[in-house]
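Example A, followed by Example B.
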Amino acid sequence: MSFGVYIHFPYCLSKCPYCDFASVAEGPEHDRYARAIACELELRAEAFRGRTARSLYVGGGTPSLWAPEAVASAVAAIRRHVSFAPRQETETTLEANPGASDAARFAELRAAGFDRISIGVQSFDDAVLARLGREHSGREAVAAFEAARHAGFDNVALDLIHGCPGQDLATARSDAATAAGLGPEHLSCYALTLEHLAVDVPMARAAREGRVAVPDEDQQWEMSQAISATLSEAGYRRYEISNWCRPGLEARHNRLYWTGGEYLGLGCGACGFALADPAEPWKGGRRWGNHRAPARYFADVEAGRLPEAWSEELDAPTLLRELLAIGLRQVQGVDLGEACARLRMDPAPFLDAAQGLHARGLALLSGAHVRLTERGLDVHTTAVLPFV
């Protein structure tokens, strides 16, 4: 089973109006937060004893605002408690926003042991960036990529968003072309989502009230098709609904989520998942989410308490349904036979569901292996309903 470590850093310079992540526009408490991560790790380490981690991911928020020496302290604490695979087999990623203050830290972050950086560009169009509430410009986005290269990062990921207020098809295509022209190893291209979020964000309220116009589903689909064609022509391979990469450079940490792997989530707003016994996954597991507010998070961990806002027990049927729903986001699909055998579930009803999708042109079957067609990927949420 895959296993990875995730640290959530909740601090940002400003709060984007579309963002529902656990983030706050406050000055970071650099050293205190690193100490809190180490405290939480001591409370959770026993649940992950015997695992070997193959990824470490620092997300947010804006982790590139975290003082490099404080990041290094948190990472050192993790390496003291968690066994990692050899460095050549381990992916270590930190998210960054464009901007001079972030880019100035890239060399120090590289020296701290990070070998991959993911830059939240979102768009290269200044008007689109302004409507998204982003603090950087298109020129600064390009400069951030160049700074990452200069700092020694030979594995750089860029994030784009399409379907933004005021964005049209030409702008979405241009963003993809500009990103591909820079030559990153990985690209994530997400559609703006304002429904079913963790919190009711300002942009969602503005859209409901008619104060902000966003492209409809058909327009978003046209944008996604244009982006896919642009990236494919540039030599990128789509391996998940919203993710493209150079051959062999898939995001290892994200893939563990899509394949049912375990993850040790640490920090304000972080989520984690551990099986009761990795050797016997049919016994189920437990998932949790930490407090989203830094004050509540600090209060618990500094008092020696787990900082959990919620937790849930997951039995084998639930794990299988989730694995199929999330795993089918991958272009490669899911081996139903293997998944059902691992969780001691009868594959027959799931194969019947897959046959139904095949008949509708939404999936392809090869024995017990199922993967969605391009049409199926476009309507993934609907396509996976028979499995959940």
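Example B, a separate protein, is given below in the same form.
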Amino acid sequence: MGFLDRSFRLKENKTNIRIELVGGLTTFMTMSYIIFVQPAILSSTGMDKGAVMFATCVSSALATLLMGLLAKYPIALAPAMGHNIFFAVIVCGTMGYSWQVALGAVFISGAIFIILSIIGVWESLVASVPDSLKHAIAVGIGLLIALIGLEYGGLVVDTPGVLVGLGDLTSRPVVLVLFGVILTAVLMAFKVPGAILIGILGTALLGIPLGVVKYHGLVSSPPSVLPTLFKLDILGAFQTGLFTVIFIFFFLDLFDTMGTLIGVSEPAGFIKKGRLPRANQAMFSDAIGTVGGALLGTSTVTSYIESATGIAQGARTGLANIFTSSLFIIALFFSPLAEMIGGEYIHNGLVLHPVVAPPLIIVGYLMMRCVTFIKWEDITEAIPAFLTIIVMPLTVSITEGIAFGFISYSLLKLVTGKGREVHWIIYLFSFLFIIRYLIK
């Protein structure tokens, strides 16, 4: 206890080993779906499913461990949703590049990330973001998390003409999700320690007799990583047509990671006087995860917004990440059990994750509280904050929310004569975002 307390400053952060364990376990459970979703997506490129699963678990464990040891934040990492779609559908599918070349592009983007992390530019970048946008990013991510939870639970479904609508409230998966939300909310109201984790377990247990959650067993042999290990084609990724792809991989990773770090850290109190301590170490962990993932055989690794569930359970230090990292390795041997929590359920053609949905919805509520810190009386602060908040969930993209926030903030400050209040980095990225939209 003494060693762990000194290493992670548990008392100083008003936490203990039990709280960090519960937080780390909660985070893992809410993001464990990636262990099975990632192979399903990347296998469409011809990649071996088992190898991708191995690469996903090991790269996630590596990056999460580094985040815990170097940056000392309870923020877990894994291959990013959205990035994997871009990898499989756009780069390999539409553009016709092999998965080996695509992995090479991911490797190069991660290598650039490592160089910038060593130079040490990330703390200045985070500090340059105005406080109003920092709070807005947190709220926007909260709404995005809640929307994902509602979609995973079947409460919100695709509806022709109006994009989204209410799902079938009488279906078994939706009933299970509503039960999970109510159970977790009641436990939180009574201040029961580990409420979100108990809610996940309670939802999973009820899902078994309902036929929504399937018990697949406990133990399995780890799959082989050899079909994808070191199979990336770095030289092939230097083809002229792939420079744009490398830039997009880098750009998406940069702003998804920065947005997640700010969004998750703001309500947790990690940001001090506008700066995120050890931001360079956090970005370095992300970069190593991406490079390691490319070598093993998986797409871009980034910080996960689901880490907010563990933080909501009280996790405040990197010790929680030690537990989460260990669970990714254990999952290689207990994948049937992990699949029971993060696995999918097909209902009316929808791919649902009923056990994961309730905690995501609850965390959306927790992160909404940052909305009170935005200066709503100042239009030049409020409108960019509003656009950041609303664009994130509606585009299902942290990067797009940040883009609209940066561009509108720069523009409003300039036309109202307050241009000097804006850091030059914000102007630079606003310009790059505009260029990105023009060349799409």
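On Example B: The CA atoms of residues 85 and 130 lie 31 Å apart.
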